[in-house]
């Protein structure tokens, strides 16, 4: 099969589109014909070697956590899916989605939302699960609460705005000037242009501040966080990590971080929100898998609005 592999850590040029052996599935896995995948910052952080203590030095590696496609075969223990089913979901760490076929655990996928293309569905899992788990699991979001999303135009942030609204919150989105209208289109109740105003100097206070781009800390945001408010980040710096530890044992404001945990139950929940029109998927650019290096380079600029998708040509499935 065709796949994009890395044989060492480095810049985008280490990504090579080539022939590799097709994966063999275990009893609780599906072999999926990958119709589409997407780019998440963790993909290029792994590629750069930023997580090498976790990902190790064994190569080649196929990255890519998001997949949408068709089930080709199922393992002997699989009960929820059959060949031909359209699914979306996550691969096991550290990836495998940047390929023509992927071996995917049954408990990490769900049926694809019926109103999404494969390209759109592949843009959902990691980013939307991160947003959902940050707000619901870490933030314990409640109807009527005030929520600020920093980085509201990005992949995680754009889902966070919509999920917070779906859960009944009053949402403020922070973005650059050029993306204010986009964030408003996600139904944010209020927008702040960070090039003109520092939200930490605002007069409003929030029950939850979700820093979807990991640019701030609890100490920097505490003046605009309510006395029992929760600050959540996707990128805990050493300073934030210390704040997380200290506030865990003290009353008042809390600092927390979110580490996405892929699972079928949450994907089913997101599927329902998507099919009822409470979440829409926004794709900034689409690249063929062969141009993954360009897709990674664009993601690294931090300018993407919504998600970056990867597609493969539709060909006959051959095993």
Account of the 3D structure:
This protein has 319 residues and is of the alpha/beta class. It is 26% helix and 27% strand. The chain is built from ten helices and 15 strands. Strands 3, 4, 5, 6, 7, 14 and 15 form a seven-stranded mixed sheet that branches. It has a six-stranded parallel sheet with strand order 10-9-8-11-12-13.
What is this structure, in a nutshell?
The protein is of the alpha/beta class and 319 residues long. The chain has helices at residues 41-48, 52-55, 118-122, 125-138, 155-166, 180-185, 218-221, 238-247, 264-275, 292-300; strands spanning 2-5, 16-19, 29-39, 66-74, 86-90, 101-105, 109-111, 146-150, 170-175, 190-193, 206-211, 225-233, 254-257, 283-288, 307-311.
Features:
about 325 residues; 6-stranded parallel β-sheet; 10 helices; about 25% helix; disordered C terminus
Low-confidence spans:
315-319
Order of helices and strands: EEEHHEEEEHHEHEHEEHEHEHEHE
Q: Give the distance, in angstroms, between the N- and C-terminal Cα atoms.
A: 10 Å
Structural Rg = 20 Å
Helix content: 25-40%
- Count all strands and give the number: 15
Q: Describe the biggest sheet?
A: 7 strands, mixed
Strand % is 25-35%
- Helix and strand composition category: alpha/beta
Shape: globular
Mean pLDDT: 96
Q: Compute the number of helices.
A: 10
List the helices and strands and how they pair.
Blueprint: E1 2-5, E2 16-19, E3 29-39, H1 41-48, H2 52-55, E4 66-74, E5 86-90, E6 101-105, E7 109-111, H3 118-122, H4 125-138, E8 146-150, H5 155-166, E9 170-175, H6 180-185, E10 190-193, E11 206-211, H7 218-221, E12 225-233, H8 238-247, E13 254-257, H9 264-275, E14 283-288, H10 292-300, E15 307-311
Parallel strand pairs: 8-9, 8-11, 9-10, 11-12, 12-13, 14-15
Antiparallel strand pairs: 1-2, 3-4, 3-6, 3-15, 4-5, 5-7
Helix pairs in contact: 4-5
């Amino acid at each position: 099969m065709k796949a994009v592999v890395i044989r060492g850590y480095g810049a985008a040029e280490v990504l090579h589109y080539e022939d590799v052996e097709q994966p063999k599935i275990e009893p609780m896995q599906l072999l999926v014909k990958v119709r589409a995948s997407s780019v998440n910052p963790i993909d290029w952080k792994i590629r750069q070697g930023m997580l090498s203590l976790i990902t190790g030095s064994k190569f080649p590696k196929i990255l890519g956590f998001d997949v949408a496609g068709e089930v080709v075969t199922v393992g002997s223990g699989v009960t929820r899916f059959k060949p031909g089913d359209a699914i979306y979901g996550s691969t096991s760490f550290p990836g495998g989605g940047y390929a023509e076929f992927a071996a995917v655990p049954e408990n990490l996928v769900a049926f694809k939302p019926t109103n999404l293309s494969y390209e759109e569905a592949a843009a959902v899992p990691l980013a939307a699960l991160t947003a959902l788990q940050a707000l619901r699991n870490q933030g314990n979001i409640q109807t009527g609460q005030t929520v600020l999303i920093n980085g509201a135009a990005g992949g995680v942030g754009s889902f966070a705005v919509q999920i917070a609204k779906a859960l009944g919150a009053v949402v403020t989105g922070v973005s650059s000037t050029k993306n204010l209208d986009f964030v408003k289109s996600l139904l944010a109740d209020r927008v702040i242009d960070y090039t003109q105003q520092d939200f930490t100097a605002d007069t409003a206070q929030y029950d939850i501040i979700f820093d979807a781009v990991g640019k701030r800390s609890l100490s920097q945001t505490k003046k605009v966080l309510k006395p029992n408010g929760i600050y959540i980040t996707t990128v805990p710096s050493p300073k934030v990590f210390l704040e997380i530890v200290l506030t865990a044992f003290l009353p008042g404001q809390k600092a927390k971080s979110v580490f996405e945990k892929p699972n079928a139950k949450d994907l089913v929940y997101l599927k329902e929100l998507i099919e009822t029109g409470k979440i829409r998927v926004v794709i900034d650019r689409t690249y063929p898998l062969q141009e993954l290096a360009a897709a990674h380079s664009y993601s690294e600029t931090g300018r993407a609005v919504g998600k970056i998708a990867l597609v493969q040509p539709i060909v006959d499935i051959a095993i």
